[in-house]
């Protein structure tokens, strides 16, 4: 039985939105965040993001495939998963996910197809038998890689990226809306919620890409392009500043207004959430990466390559913790306070092995990386060296892992 | 658009998928869906018929256990149904008419569900702070050692 302090109604002492509902915005955030990075290259022509543009798009796709699983695990009715897509409900806020999810999926798959089309055709040409049939089907039977066709692809990619960016922002902004629109809960009910969710999605997406890029470059024996890491670090810094400022401004407004809910929210933050909010979200995941990234961005010229990479990677790792803590504090924190605004329940401890347990959450987080690995096997995440080339071998491992070039 | 053949094909493919989804939607939405609200109306009757009657209410218990039923009606638990502690009638009198001993919940957690002290409960409602009220460990059937659930006294 949960311990209760203060005045709590008997029916609101249960945490029904469990760890899976923490994982849902966490995973969806990576979808939107990675897409923002890929759009910076495909839509806004930021050449410094070229080395991660395809990786970012594949990451967005991998996380998108997993994004609905936490909800299905929470609800326990997986057979209804497809229904939310095929039978859209335009008046239900919850069912809005199905509409946004399927629309974004459509746009992303189309964009993926145009981006990887040349690679699909190359693989179809190279392979034989069943494998060839598979790639030929993926290429829809046309092997046109003439400059004119590639030009059309570029136009299509630009248009799709133009539609995909607002779609990705809507998909994650919607998750914030689901919480922000619950007016009975003062810890959730603020119009800032979708904005904060969206910005922290950008933070988590960029942070994940910094980590993934380092790992992928190692595995694929490619040099880490330092301009790309610097650019990712500056954008991460920018979005982290915005996120943390908004998260704090929301509190400062509440505290200054001394609204009736502040009494309980201040107690919630200083007692039940003191570790996950103050220590993890604000200090370890917020302040420390802010300082590290400030060093990376402001002292960029003076930093040795390895130092820059290490600082950016550590900052990225800490920001991933910040974003997870933020999801946790919102989802779980909002359920620890009573609707009476005068009572709190004891902290929530997730189970270890169950359907909504810790192990399942870890499996959900690992699944997109497995999908990425399969994606790399089937389509190859990066273009073969010497772009448009037909299977040039990758650079020799010894020199590639140590070297990194600045264009 | 000599070189736009692949665009044409992918557009056709998307159109086919959309048509399949729209047709699939027609097939997947049941006939009685939306008759009274956003649920399948026929499901209510189906669920009702699919399940045997489990709870029958206090009046059904009184048909055989009139003495205890009268005691309950006179006491403080007059509004608490027998089946809350004694399990539903369906677990006591089976579908074939045979009678089995029902599982009875005598645990302190069942009592605590209503009588555990909570500031949100009306002050006149009998409620106790379990740790202070019980002299000894709070476990098992501890409440029933002093209180008679059929006619409880404070």
Architecture overview:
The complex is a heterodimer of chains A (407) and B (154). Chain A has 15 helices and 2 strands. In chain A, 70% of the residues lie in helices and 2% in strands. Chain A is an all-alpha fold and 407 residues long. Chain A has helices spanning 19-42, 50-67, 69-75, 81-86, 96-126, 129-138, 147-180, 192-220, 226-257, 262-272, 274-298, 305-331, 333-336, 358-378, 397-402, and strands spanning 4-7, 342-345. Chain B is mostly helical and 154 residues long. Chain B folds into 2 domains: 5-50, no CATH class; 58-145, no CATH class. Chain B contains 7 helices and no strands. The chains are: A mainly alpha (407), B mainly alpha (154). Chains A and B meet through strand 1, helix 4, helix 5 and helix 7 of A and helix 1 of B.
List descriptors:
heterodimer; A: 407 residues; mainly alpha; two-stranded antiparallel ribbon; 2% strand; disordered C terminus; B: 154 residues; 2 domains; 42% helix
């Amino acid at each position: 039985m949960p311990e209760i302090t203060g005045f709590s109604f008997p029916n609101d002492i249960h945490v029904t939105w469990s760890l899976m509902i923490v994982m849902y915005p966490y995973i969806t955030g990576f979808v939107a965040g990675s897409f923002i990075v890929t759009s910076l290259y495909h839509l806004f022509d930021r050449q410094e993001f070229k080395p991660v543009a395809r990786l970012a798009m594949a990451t967005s796709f991998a996380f998108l495939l997993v994004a609905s699983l936490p909800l299905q695990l929470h609800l326990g009715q997986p057979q209804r998963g497809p229904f939310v897509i095929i039978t859209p409900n335009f008046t239900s806020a919850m069912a809005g996910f199905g509409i946004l999810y399927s629309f974004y999926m459509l746009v992303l798959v189309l964009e993926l197809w145009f981006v990887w089309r040349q690679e699909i055709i190359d693989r179809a040409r190279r392979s034989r038998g069943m494998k060839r049939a598979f790639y030929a089907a993926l290429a829809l039977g046309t092997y046109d890689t003439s400059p004119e066709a590639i030009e059309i692809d570029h136009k299509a990619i630009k248009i799709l990226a133009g539609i995909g960016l607002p779609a990705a922002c809507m998909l994650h902004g919607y998750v914030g809306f689901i919480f922000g629109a619950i007016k009975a809960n003062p810890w959730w009910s603020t119009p800032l919620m979708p904005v904060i969710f969206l910005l922290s999605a950008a933070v988590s997406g960029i942070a994940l890409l910094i980590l993934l890029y380092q790992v992928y470059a190692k595995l694929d024996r490619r040099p880490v392009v330092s301009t790309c890491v610097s650019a990712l670090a500056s954008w991460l810094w920018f979005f982290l500043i915005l996120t943390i400022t908004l998260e704090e401004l929301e509190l400062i407004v509440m505290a200054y207004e001394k609204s009736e809910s502040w009494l309980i929210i201040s107690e919630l933050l200083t007692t039940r959430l003191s570790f996950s909010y103050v220590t993890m979200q604000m200090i370890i995941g917020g302040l420390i990466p802010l300082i590290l990234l400030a060093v990376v961005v402001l002292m960029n010229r003076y930093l040795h390559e390895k130092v820059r990479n290490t600082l950016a990677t550590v900052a990225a790792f800490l920001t991933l913790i910040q974003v997870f803590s933020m999801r946790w504090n919102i989802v779980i924190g909002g359920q620890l306070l009573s609707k009476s605004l005068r009572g709190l329940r004891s902290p929530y401890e997730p189970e270890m092995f169950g359907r909504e347990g810790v192990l399942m959450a870890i499996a959900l987080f690992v699944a997109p990386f497995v999908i990425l690995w399969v994606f790399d096997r089937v389509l190859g995440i990066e273009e073969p060296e010497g772009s448009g080339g037909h299977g040039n071998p990758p650079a020799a491992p010894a020199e590639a892992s140590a070297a990194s070039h600045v264009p | 658009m000599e070189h736009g053949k692949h665009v044409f094909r992918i557009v056709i493919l998307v159109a086919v998928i959309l048509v399949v989804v729209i047709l699939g939607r027609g097939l997947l939405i049941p006939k009685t869906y939306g008759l009274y609200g956003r649920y399948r109306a026929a499901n209510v009757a189906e669920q009702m018929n699919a399940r045997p009657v489990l709870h029958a209410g206090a009046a059904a218990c009184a048909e055989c256990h009139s003495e205890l039923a009268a005691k309950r009606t006179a006491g403080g638990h007059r509004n608490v149904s027998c089946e809350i502690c004694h399990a539903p009638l369906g677990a006591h009198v089976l579908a074939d008419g045979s009678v089995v001993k029902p599982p009875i919940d005598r645990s302190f957690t069942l009592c605590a569900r209503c009588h555990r002290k909570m500031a949100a409960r009306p002050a006149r409602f009998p409620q106790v702070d379990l740790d202070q009220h019980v002299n000894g460990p709070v476990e098992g059937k501890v409440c029933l050692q002093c209180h008679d659930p059929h006619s409880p006294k404070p």
